[in-house]
Amino acid sequence: MAANYWASTQRRHWLFTREKLAEVRDRLRDQDKASHSQFPLPDQRLLNIYFNQQLIKLGKRMSTRQQAIATAQVYLKRFYTKNEIRQTNPYLVLTTAFYLACKMEECPQHIRFVAGEARGLYPEFITPDVAKLGECEFALISEMSSQLIVHHPYRTLSELQNELALSSDEVALAWSVINDHYLTDLPLLHPPHIIAVMAIIVAVVFKPSHPGNFGNSAQSALAGVMRDGGGMGMLAALSDKSGSGPPRIQNLVQWLAESEVDIKAVIECTQELLSLYEVWEQYNEKHCKELIGRMVRTKNLDK
Amino acid sequence: MALSPFGSRSPAVTVASPNSALRLKAAAAAPQNASASTSTIIRSDPNPERELAEQLNDDIRRKYVKGKKLGEGTYAIVYLGNYRDDPSSLVAIKKIKVNAEYKDGLTMDAIREVKYLQELSHRNIIALHDVFSSKDQNLNLVLEFLPGGDLEMLIKDGDIHYGAADIKAWMGMLARGVWFCHENFVLHRDIKPNNLLIGADGEVKLADFGLARSFADPYLNMTHQVITRWYRPPELLFGARQYSGAVDVWSMGMVFAELLLRVPLLAGMSDLDQITKICEAFGTPTEENWPGVTQLPNYVTDKVVPLQGRDFFLRQFPTAGPVGADLLMSMCVLDPRKRATALQVLQHRWWTTEPRPTNNEDLPRKSGTKKMGDDLARVGGETDEGLFKNAARQLDFGGKK
Question: pTM for the complete prediction?
Answer without folding.
Answer: 0.78
